[in-house]
Every structure is written in C-alpha cells, then in structure tokens.
C-alpha cells in the first residue's frame, strides 16, 4: 500500500514543479527575447536502504525552446533584433559575460549602454559607454554604433563602438538563474561577425500563451488524479486495518 501512496505522492509533487515552469513561461509571454522552457516526465528508481522497490515520477526541464520570437517593428533607433541565430553579449550582475536576445537598448546618464533589464551591453573591449552628450545614435546591421555629437551638423557621424554578437550554437547554451544564457563550458563565446541585426525592431517572446494554458490545465488534471489516488490508498489502508481487527 505504501508503494501505491509513494507513487501518487511523488507524482503530485512533480506536477506542481511542472506547473511552476509553465506558469513562468506564461508570465514571460510579453518579455522581449524570452525563450520558453520545456518539461518532461519520467519514472525514476529510488536508491537507498529499504528503497530498491520504490519508483517515483520526476519532472525535469530537458532544455529550452530556442525558436525565434516574432519581430516587432518599433522605429526606435536603439532597438535591435537578431536576424536568425545569434546572441547579444551582456555583462551579468556578477561581472561575467552572458547572452540574451532582448534588444531594446538605452543608455544611462553616464552613457553606459544597457538593455531594458538594465544589463550592460558588451562590445569588443567590454561594456559600451557612449560619449555624451549626443543628438543621435544609429546601429548598423553588423552592430556598429555611430553617434552624432550634440550640436554637430547632420553629416557628422562618428563610429564609437561595436556590439559583440556571438553564435556558438544553441546546443551549447544553458539558461542561468538570472535568466541570461551562458556556454555550458563556462567560457566566453568568441564574437561572430556573421551575426546581423535589424535596427528599429525587437524580438518578442516565443511563448505560445494558448499552448501554455492548455498544458497548465492538463497538469492540474493530473494533479487532481494523483490526489484522488492518495485518497484511494488511504481508504484501502483503512479497509485493510478493519479486516485485521475483525480477524
């Protein structure tokens, strides 16, 4: 009886974990450049003294859906969207190099170029700092940033930096707890001059809200089934105890 209860209990617990993954995907349906996580379930044998006959279910995230999100035109000079494969290099909070597809850029009062999450954008020589004050900024398909200093004539355009783009292959990437991606090796990826961007546009989230909602409903149904199984195990145990008392 306890084996029956153990399977149902572990199934309900893992169902809640799967629900959390789906809920996180749905919460980021409007987050620029977000990549949804996938889930899968499998049976696992429990190891340890007295547990060789125990099997439990486990939900895990085998990877990330790296398909491109929709490209949305904004007409804003500092918005960029990666064309095809590739990543924008950024500086994570711990100082390490990480990667994202979020391309809604801006600069703070010191000229530091950051994205919508206030993460510094990396260039060939570290975080990019624009020479303030400036009247106009434009970004070429290759990631070259050109500015017009404040008060300069319209034809005066100066190249000041180049955004670092990388393309190590999606199978080499993994998401960190901060939501940014890194190489599985932990090393920084080499820049790739073949990666290009579309200026005046951003990439939206690749989350399909309808798909996530359907998946959440299905997980909730499974959770209800596991709880019912636990109740059945309790009733069966109570009936067995009654029979032993009668005997």
UniProtKB/TrEMBL annotation:
<feature type="domain" description="Flagellar basal body rod protein N-terminal">
    <location>
        <begin position="5"/>
        <end position="35"/>
    </location>
</feature>
<feature type="domain" description="Flagellar hook protein FlgE/F/G-like D1">
    <location>
        <begin position="81"/>
        <end position="147"/>
    </location>
</feature>
<comment type="similarity">
    <text>Belongs to the flagella basal body rod proteins family.</text>
</comment>
<dbReference type="InterPro" id="IPR010930">
    <property type="entry name" value="Flg_bb/hook_C_dom"/>
</dbReference>
<dbReference type="InterPro" id="IPR053967">
    <property type="entry name" value="LlgE_F_G-like_D1"/>
</dbReference>
<feature type="domain" description="Flagellar basal-body/hook protein C-terminal">
    <location>
        <begin position="199"/>
        <end position="243"/>
    </location>
</feature>
<dbReference type="InterPro" id="IPR020013">
    <property type="entry name" value="Flagellar_FlgE/F/G"/>
</dbReference>
<protein>
    <recommendedName>
        <fullName>Flagellar basal-body rod protein FlgF</fullName>
    </recommendedName>
</protein>
<keyword id="KW-0975">Bacterial flagellum</keyword>
<comment type="subunit">
    <text>The basal body constitutes a major portion of the flagellar organelle and consists of five rings (E,L,P,S, and M) mounted on a central rod. The rod consists of about 26 subunits of FlgG in the distal portion, and FlgB, FlgC and FlgF are thought to build up the proximal portion of the rod with about 6 subunits each.</text>
</comment>
<keyword id="KW-0966">Cell projection</keyword>
<dbReference type="InterPro" id="IPR037925">
    <property type="entry name" value="FlgE/F/G-like"/>
</dbReference>
<dbReference type="Pfam" id="PF00460">
    <property type="entry name" value="Flg_bb_rod"/>
</dbReference>
<dbReference type="Pfam" id="PF22692">
    <property type="entry name" value="LlgE_F_G_D1"/>
</dbReference>
<dbReference type="InterPro" id="IPR012836">
    <property type="entry name" value="FlgF"/>
</dbReference>
<keyword id="KW-0969">Cilium</keyword>
<dbReference type="InterPro" id="IPR001444">
    <property type="entry name" value="Flag_bb_rod_N"/>
</dbReference>
<dbReference type="Pfam" id="PF06429">
    <property type="entry name" value="Flg_bbr_C"/>
</dbReference>
<keyword id="KW-0282">Flagellum</keyword>
